[in-house]
Amino acid sequence: xxxxxxxxxxxxxxxxxxxxxxxxxxxxxxxxxxxxxxxxxxxxxxxxxxxxxxxxxxxxxxxxxxxxxxxxxxxxxxxxxxxxxxxxxxxxxxxxxxxxxxxxxxxxxxxxxxxxxxxxxxxxxxxxxxxxxxxxxxxxxxxxxxxxxxxxxxxxxxxxxxxxxxxxxxxxxxxxxxxxxxxxxxxxxxxxxxxxxxxxxxxxxxxxxxxxxxxxxxxxxxxxxxxxxxxxxxxxxxxxxxxxxxxxxxxxxxxxxxxxxxxxxxxxxxxxxxxxxxxxxxxxxxxxxxxxxxxxxxxxxxxxxxxxx
Length: 309
Known about the structure:
The chain is an alpha+beta fold. The chain has helices at residues 3-94, 103-133, 146-164, 183-199, 245-250, 258-268, 291-294, and strands spanning 142-144, 167-172, 179-181, 206-214, 217-224, 272-278, 282-290. The chain contains seven helices and seven strands. Helix 1 runs antiparallel to helix 2 (103-133). The chain is elongated, with a radius of gyration of 34 Å.
């Protein structure tokens, strides 16, 4: 072999060595790909099994949730009738229909009436939340005299105000235009806001209910001299089941549904919630509706004559 032949063989040998090494690497990569594919198929199979189990679990959870909503709805309907009866008879006793009531008896009946009223509020809130979960929560507007509704709720809550030794004052417009709102749900909002104010206001405090027309809107507000809401907790106040820390200490039996439902009802009718509070100094809760969006058509006005407050 000449020197040139030897150099050529050395070059070929080096290239062959690289080619052989590349071939071996390629075989290793192929084998790795096969192994990886097998592991992916095994993992995918396990994931399918897990997903199937999760689907079954999710279906069971949905069934349980639906059963829960159905039970709450049924129980709420069944409880409302006897509670209404209890309230009716207690009211008759307070008015002396069954004979003269002594001061001590009156105090006991007042407490019973307040307890029955709270149960009515709780049932209404639970029923509405259940309806929301099942898609049956519907706003049903009709011509409403808000002044009459507010007076009615204030009158019902006067017993509670006396029991808590809180001064309940109303400052309502003499007359407002008839509006198109869901009367039952709006009434529930008014009642919840006044009830909360009475409960979270200490003895000797004051709760003032306002209902008035401001420019092109109608505004309902409940202002109290109560415990207020800590600033750090105000952002969560209208979420489901949330209650501020000082409220839980004051009232352990609350549900955290009243304000949640109030916001849903007001927003569902095109209104906005009013809220501002200072811890230890009191709060203002309420709602406002643009008049043009809720004004009832002419001819649908209810009797809105001035009534004694």
